[in-house]
């Protein structure tokens, strides 16, 4: 694959992958889980801190190892089976669930905005997947440039909501201190469930590591794109959620999937509200494209090592466009199945649980490699070592354990789907040997 992705395009992929539906549609879930404005804002800040700590930590590996993506980082540190399981989980859970959940939200908002019957929302979602599949098949360079444009466009509605909201003369009080939970809510449950929901809105930054072999200067640009992107995203999320809470009272935010639309209507009036909603649709569109751009490379990476059946087909990229065509079809086919069968909240919680299991292993890998290979050239070193990696690891363990406790069935499904890859792995190992 050609090195054709610039720092700006890598940064746009990080921001474009992360900022999608979560920032607009998780506020209703989180306020229901916390019951207070202070705890709602706290879990957004905490999710940002954990994500930045994880980004700083994993950036050291991304800059040090001249290999393609987090799959290879796990291979290098723990052995091939762990890298394969991570890639397998990305292929059948993470990317399809992201694409499916975001496309479903796009479909629901699209039919609502244009007054189309609700039963057509899944059809709209599937058409979006097929349309973006066609766009990405044109070529990596084209889809990356389009992602840069979409990322700029998606910031516009967010900026408008934040600016108008902060200067809104009729603000509703949204106390951020003292840190409390609502009546009938327990402190530990509010933090754990709220954090899990908020972290969905931060998901996606790690997928830029799948483009390591296509970034022009991966040693510097990958870590810069991840760190700058996550820092900006955290600030944006805190400001926009504070704005939502000063425009709508918490009882109107609770379990409200249309909170962003209603807040926009209050801030800008009916026409302005609809215009901002169009911007939100563009934001979701950009996130789906970013996950598609990076997700199709997961089967390709696994097939390059002959770890999947039909690897000779899956591990090929189009000689003219550089696009792994079969990988794109695999991920998008599973995504369409999830659109037809899935539930937005279930899909998002499951993918967060599965991914943070591996993210935690990646954070631990930095500590392992520091001890195992102290002479390894590290163009970027995580600052305040080992404090930042420890924050990342503790945060990851908290997410995984609290999900198992609070959503046992969901966590078992996620673990089960991941472990389904083991028979395939050992079959291919036997076949290769």
From TrEMBL:
Keywords: Membrane, Transmembrane, Transmembrane helix. The keyword Transmembrane helix applies. The chain crosses the membrane at residues 7-29, 41-63, 84-108, 120-138, 150-167, 187-213, 225-244, 275-296, 317-344, 350-370, 382-402, 408-428. It comes from the Bacteria. Its main location: membrane. One of its GO terms (molecular function) is L-amino acid transmembrane transporter activity. It is a multi-pass membrane protein. InterPro entries: AA/rel_permease1 (IPR002293), AminoAcid_Transporter (IPR050598). Pfam families: AA_permease_2. It is found in: Membrane. This is Amino acid permease. It comes from Lactobacillus crispatus.
């Amino acid at each position: 694959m050609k090195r054709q992705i610039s720092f700006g395009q890598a940064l746009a992929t990080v921001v474009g992958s992360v900022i999608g539906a979560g920032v607009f549609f998780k506020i209703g879930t989180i306020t229901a889980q916390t019951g207070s404005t202070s705890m709602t804002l706290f879990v957004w800040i905490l999710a940002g801190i954990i994500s930045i700590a994880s980004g700083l930590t994993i950036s050291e590996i991304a800059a040090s190892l001249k290999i393609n993506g987090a799959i290879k980082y796990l291979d290098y540190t723990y052995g091939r089976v762990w890298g394969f399981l991570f890639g397998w989980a990305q292929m059948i859970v993470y990317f399809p669930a992201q694409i499916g959940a975001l496309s479903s939200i796009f479909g629901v908002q699209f039919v609502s905005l244009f007054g189309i019957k609700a039963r057509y929302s899944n059809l709209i979602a599937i058409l979006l997947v097929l349309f973006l599949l066609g766009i990405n098949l044109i070529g990596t360079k084209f889809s990356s440039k389009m992602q840069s444009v979409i990322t700029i466009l998606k910031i516009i509605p967010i900026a408008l909501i934040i600016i108008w909201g902060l200067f809104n003369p009729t603000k509703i009080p949204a106390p951020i201190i003292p840190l409390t939970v609502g009546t009938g809510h327990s402190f530990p449950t509010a933090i754990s469930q709220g954090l899990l929901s908020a972290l969905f809105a931060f998901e996606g930054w790690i997928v830029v590591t799948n483009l390591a072999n296509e970034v022009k200067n991966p040693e510097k640009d990958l870590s810069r794109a991840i760190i700058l992107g996550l820092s900006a995203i955290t600030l944006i999320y805190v400001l926009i959620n504070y704005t939502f809470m000063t425009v709508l009272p918490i009882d109107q935010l609770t379990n409200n999937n249309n909170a962003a639309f209603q807040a926009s209507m209050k801030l800008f009036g009916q026409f302005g509200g609809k215009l901002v909603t169009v911007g939100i649709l563009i934001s979701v569109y950009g996130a789906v494209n970013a996950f598609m751009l990076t997700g199709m490379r997961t089967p390709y990476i696994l097939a390059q090592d002959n770890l999947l059946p039909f690897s000779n087909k899956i591990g090929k990229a189009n000689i003219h466009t550089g696009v792994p065509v079969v990988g794109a079809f695999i991920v998008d086919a599973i995504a369409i199945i999830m659109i037809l069968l899935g539930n937005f909240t279930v899909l998002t919680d499951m993918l967060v649980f599965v991914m943070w299991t591996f993210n935690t292993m990646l954070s631990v890998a930095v500590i392992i490699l520091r001890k195992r290979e102290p002479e390894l050239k590290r163009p970027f070193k995580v600052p305040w070592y080992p404090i930042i990696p420890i924050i990342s690891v503790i945060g990851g363990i908290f997410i995984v354990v609290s999900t198992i406790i609070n959503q046992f069935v969901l966590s078992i499904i996620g673990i089960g789907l991941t472990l389904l890859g083991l028979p395939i792995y050992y079959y291919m190992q036997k076949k290769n040997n």
